[in-house]
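Hello,

Our lab assistant flagged a job as stuck in the queue for most of the afternoon. It eventually completed. Since we weren't sure the result was trustworthy after the delay, we are filing this so someone can double-check. Below is the sequence as submitted and the structure that was eventually returned. Let us know if re-running is recommended.
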Amino acid sequence: MHCPFCRTSESRVVDSRATDDGVAIRRRRQCAACGRRFTTVETPSLNVLKRSGVSEGFSRNKVVSGVRKACRGRPVSEDDLAVLAQQVEDTIRQSGLAEVPSDEVGLAILGPLRSLDEVAYLRFASVYRGFTSAEDFEKEIRDMRQEGRSEDD
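-- returned structure --
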């Protein structure tokens, strides 16, 4: 950790506190060289293992970007997308794994997206699950209706 003022790598921790419901740690540090204080926020890394075998850091922006395409022309705000991305990240972090397969990210998106907008959900699911015919859409809609009825009971 380098001091943002003098770029020295030596600092000591003055105070530590959990933030964001324990997901991150906020540390107040003091530089050993210049004596100035600065704050750092530490979060555990979360990586996504893609189908190609490449591992990359989880990105809320990538979640929002992918879902935004499914929501094009729908009454979904940027705030709604930000909340959805946070829900997805929370779901994935709850698994306790440092690296999750990309399929798990897709599954984590489906639930909150369905609650947000059913049309956007169908669009996203059609790509994610690789729908190849109208029958695939019909089956998904039937499943949605059945689940909707069982929730009403």
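-- support follow-up --
The delay was a queue issue, not a problem with the job. The result is valid. Residues 59 and 89 are 9 Å apart (CA to CA). The two ends are 56 Å apart (CA to CA).
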